[in-house]
Amino acid sequence: MCLDVDKTSSYVVSGSYDTNVILWDYKTGTQLKSFKGHNSGVWSVKVSPDSKYVASGSWDNNQNAKGSAQNCVNILNLKTLKIIKSLSISPDRYKTVRFIPELDDTSPNGIYDILFNINGSKIAAITRSGDLFIWDINDNFNETSYSFRETNHDLLALSPDWKYIACTERKRSMVDTGFYLLQLGMNEVMAKFNNPKRSVIEVYFSSNSQYIASISGDRITRNEIDIWDIRTQELLFTLKGHSNVIRSIAFGLNDRYLASAAEDNIVNLWDIHTGKLLASFTENNGKELTSVVFSPNQKYLITGSQDKTIKYWNIEEWIN
Q1: 20 to 30 A Cα–Cα from 205, which one of 193, 251, 254, 282?
Q2: In the chain, what are the domain boundaries?
């Protein structure tokens, strides 16, 4: 299950492996509406900054007569509660598949992550093959794409200000002990972040693009988080507090705090200025946690788990 919350604290949006996107009332937990528009699991949902739209990304692999993948990205209007646009990526455009541990299928046309730009006018989607697609909402969803085949890099993340991308070097072993920072639209490497003791699996930017959190470890554990200073490329802290695979990370409260959710059924709250573990919460139903976000008022952590339940965890005691 993947999650996001709109900035007005009206809705929680969830997507899950059952192909559904569900809209919930933030305050009451009531299910408001369920949307069916994908034919495969939904791996990312994001609410636009202006709370007008929800974008959901799937790795749908059904094809029409022309060979185009169907409904990889759906756009939902939160006012009308209707899907206003379905966007597709042709499966024959990019063939190389990047190693994403949580995904078992090898379809290259699926969506790994989605994000809106700052004013909500554009949507970016990162595919499983590590390429980037951008659609302009105000220009009839005109598409721009970026391929990193010639640079020999795989895309991991796009910074919130859309200025930078984080990439790993494509290797036969599919194991990377570091990652690179490139300017969007440019092939030149601006910075390299390297921790030779661990391989980098996923990368997350802080909202102010000052920090990067990378999930690291081997393919089995992946239970540590490295915190990097983007300006100096310095490794500030390695956060150790999980015994199993970390599935989700979120920055909160002016990027001072970080939350992590893992398959050990634990969600942790960290102070990234000190590297200290502030609080740890355990999901007692035995189901793996798959996602975590901060509430808009920063008073709660909201988690989703494999049993399709969403829970709120009060963190006021530790952040005030």
Answers
A1: 282
A2: 2-244, 245-320
In the block, residue with structure tokens 């895309």 = 155
Strands (DSSP E) found in 170-299: 178-183, 189-194, 199-205, 211-217, 224-229, 234-240, 246-252, 257-262, 266-271, 276-282, 289-294
Question: Taking a C-beta distance cutoff of 8 angstroms, is the pair 58, 104 a contact?
Answer: no
Collapsing DSSP states into helix, strand and coil, what is residue 137?
helix
> C-alpha distances in angstroms, 119 versus 55, 207, 287?
14, 14, 36
Residue-level pLDDT at 97 = 29
For the chain, 320 residues long, the average pLDDT of each consecutive 10-residue run is 92 92 95 88 92 88 48 87 84 36 43 89 84 91 79 76 83 64 83 80 91 83 91 94 94 94 95 96 85 95 92 90
pTM: 0.86
Residue 176 confidence (pLDDT)? 60
Question: 245-320, what's its fold?
Answer: Thrombin, subunit H (2.40.10)
Taking a C-beta distance cutoff of 8 angstroms, is the pair 134, 123 a contact?
yes
> Is the Cβ–Cβ distance between 287 and 305 less than 8 Å?
yes
Other beta carbons within 10 angstroms of residue 59's beta carbon come to: 24
Question: How far is 190 from 186, CA to CA, in rounded Å?
Answer: 10
User: What is the predicted pLDDT for the residue at 150?
Assistant: 56
- Per the listing, tokens 């006012």 go with 79
Q: What is the pLDDT of residue 115?
A: 92
**Residue 266: C-alpha distances to residues 69, 140, 226 (Å):** 36, 43, 18
Q: Which two tokens stand for residue 191?
A: 């910075």
Under CATH, which number does the domain 2-244 receive?
2.130.10.10
User: d(Cα 240, Cα 161) in Å, to the nearest integer?
Assistant: 29
Token pair of 112, please? 């790994």
